TrEMBL record:
This is Di/tricarboxylate transporter. Residues 203-289, 295-381 form the RCK C-terminal domain. CDD domains: SLC13_permease. It comes from the Bacteria. The keyword Nucleotide-binding does not apply. The chain crosses the membrane at residues 6-21, 28-45, 51-71, 83-101, 137-160, 180-199, 398-431, 486-515, 527-546, 566-588. Keywords: Membrane, Repeat, Transmembrane, Transmembrane helix, Transport. PANTHER family: BASIC AMINO ACID ANTIPORTER YFCC-RELATED. It is a multi-pass membrane protein. It is found in: Membrane.
Length: 591
């Protein structure tokens, strides 16, 4: 072993150790590894930052913006609305929700697909009495399975495609992953549809769920132009599919009435609505209502700079014991209170006079540029990072058109993947499906920094001959195995490493090793690269190996060990079917 190989293995080993230790952020670990590699001379100084200009970084960043745009467009919620009422049985709920997340994850980032469907799942759980723990983990696992089906579904596929260019001169294309990914995804969703029974039933979610399913009280003005002027309370409630209740009507600025179903609505009425945030957003938009406290905020650069966030009032909050009038929420903090929820209990007072309590859930409108500072000053903890589209018109047609055009251009090979997705991200902002600020916020900058830093570091394994050394050891271990056994060995190795490394880092390390092992055994490298991508994309055993698993842990009330219950049999299924499908569609030997 040469000194450069020692340095390369030492840096990679330090990266793995630091990521397992989990005291430093993974992007900082990547930067330290890059600096260490330059200092030791295994990465030339002039090549140190080439990773940041790599196509991988552009594709991943652009895909995140496109995913955010699809989520904010509301097209998924609109498509799911007719199905939601029909999902009355538990197995149907698991099948439809896990299947829908799986399908969407093939064309948008899997974490984005899961975030889009979680509010839908929680509304269904509340309406039907289904334990939410039965739904969320199957959806998280479905999002990982769906990412296997296309080039842009998950970061490992993008990275493997880039590494294939270096090794064979030809990248994987958009749907090269589909035959293998589709087999695994179909079998995986079928298993999840019955396997959810392995999960704990009825366990309460952790305190402060990431997505509130409580009812909010909000006040909305019925303007002159609304189609519901002159119609009855019952008609408006029926229009909202029974998900919104008109708890009271305020007239003449101060008289508060509890209406009967036959009451006629007049222009200028202030309607006190009780609903969850998604239903509230939908009825405000569709019925032409206007939130009472939704007024222009001073200092906002434009309408696109205004955001709506759901937050919980913490124990230390200065809002406790005060009303928004007393605290001067708009004048002092530049924020509006749009809705309030108090553990499902109805709010009898006007919102501006309610004295807030610890644990209250609030919907606050403020400048997006100052959201973090405003919430910190108020002592409010933001819940999941989702914008509530109250009073905002989603641009569904534009989002669908841009996404369809992008997929078509990539699938036909008319435009390189990098250009297509970068163009799609730009188009989403130009068409105002997302604002520029939302686009920047959608990008996971730590992931891009990790990728840019580790690309030249991982290259040192190849340039120093380290991959050949490891491949030699693995080929000795696999010499008594059939070619399919060697393929399964690489898939299992990638799957085993992923919970401890970021899946992008796993591919950067394991893909060259897999290709070198194939060369040592006289086999084609494509199948081994595909096995690395599948293994790195399938972490079902822990809540920390992938963001999707982490996202559902709190709302589902899961414990660390719960992931093994459903994840272990699913992992075995992926290894068996994945190995067979890869060897079928990507032959191991030359014909």
């Amino acid at each position: 072993m040469t000194l450069d190989q020692v340095f390369s293995f030492g840096i990679i080993g330090a990266v793995i150790a630091l990521l397992i230790w989990d005291r430093l952020r993974y992007d900082l670990v990547g930067m330290l590894a890059l600096l260490g590699s330059v200092a030791l001379g295994i990465v030339p100084a002039k090549e140190a930052f080439q990773g940041f200009s790599d196509d991988i970084v552009i594709i991943v960043g652009s895909a995140l913006v496109v995913s955010a745009a699809v989520g904010r467009s509301g097209v998924v919620e609109a498509a799911m609305r007719p199905l939601a009422a029909r999902m009355t049985t538990l197995w149907a709920q698991v099948f439809v929700l896990a299947g829908a997340v799986t399908l969407l994850s093939a064309i948008v980032k899997n974490i984005g697909a899961l975030a889009i469907f979680m509010p839908i799942a929680l509304q269904i759980a509340r309406r039907t009495g289904t334990p939410v723990s039965m739904l969320l983990m199957p959806m998280a696992f479905g999002s990982l399975l769906g990412g296997l089906m296309t080039l842009v579904g998950t970061s490992p596929n993008i990275i493997v495609s880039r590494l294939r260019v270096e090794m064979t001169g030809e990248p994987f294309h958009m749907f090269d992953f589909t035959p293998v990914g589709l087999v695994i995804a179909l079998a995986g969703v079928a298993f999840l549809t019955v396997g959810y029974r392995l999960l704990p039933k009825g366990r309460a979610a952790a305190s402060g769920p990431a997505f509130s399913i409580d009812d909010y009280t909000a006040e909305a003005l019925l303007p002159q132009g609304s189609p519901f002027v002159g119609r009855t309370v019952a008609e408006l409630e029926a229009f909202a599919d029974g998900e919104v209740t008109i708890a009271a009507i305020v007239r003449e600025n101060y008289r508060r009435y509890v209406p009967s179903a036959h009451w006629v609505l007049f222009a200028g009425d202030i309607l006190v609505l009780e609903a969850d945030t998604q239903a509230l957003a939908a009825v405000v938009k569709r019925a032409g209502l206007r939130m009472v406290h939704e007024k222009e905020l001073e200092g906002g650069e434009s309408r696109d700079d205004i955001a709506v966030v759901e937050a919980v009032v913490e124990q230390r909050s200065r809002l406790i014991g005060q009303s928004i009038e007393e605290v001067q929420l708009r004048e002092r903090y530049g924020a509006n209170l749009l809705a309030l929820s108090r553990r499902g209990r109805p709010i009898r007072q006007r919102l501006r006079r309610v004295r807030l309590q610890a644990g209250d859930l609030v919907v606050i409108q403020c400048r997006q540029s100052g959201m973090a500072e405003i919430l910190a000053a108020l002592g409010c903890l933001p819940l999941a990072e989702r914008d509530l589209a109250i009073g905002r018109v989603p641009k569904r047609a534009a989002a669908v058109a841009v996404l369809a055009l992008t997929v078509t251009l990539v699938a036909t090979g008319m435009v390189p993947v990098t250009i297509a997705f970068f163009g799609a991200a730009v188009a989403m902002t130009v068409l105002k499906v997302v604002s520029l600020r939302e686009a920047y916020d959608a990008v996971e900058w730590p992931i891009l920094v990790l990728l840019g830093s580790l690309i030249p570091v991982s290259e040192t394994l190849r340039t120093t001959g380290g991959t050949e050394l490891i491949a030699g050891f693995l080929s000795q271990a696999a010499q008594n195995l059939p070619p399919v056994g060697a393929l399964a060995l690489i898939l299992v190795a990638a799957m085993a490493v992923t919970p401890f490394l970021n899946n992008a880092a796993t591919v950067l390390v394991m893909a060259p090793i897999g290709a070198s092992l194939a060369t040592h055994l006289g086999l084609r490298p494509d199948a081994f690269l595909m096995a690395v991508a599948v293994g790195a994309g399938c972490d079902f055993l822990t809540p920390i190996g992938h963001q999707c698993n982490t996202l559902v842990m709190g709302p589902g009330g899961y414990r660390f060990g719960d992931y093994w219950r459903l994840g272990l049999p699913l992992s075995i299924l992926v290894v068996v079917l994945g190995t067979a499908a890869i060897s079928l569609f990507w032959p191991l030997t030359q014909h």
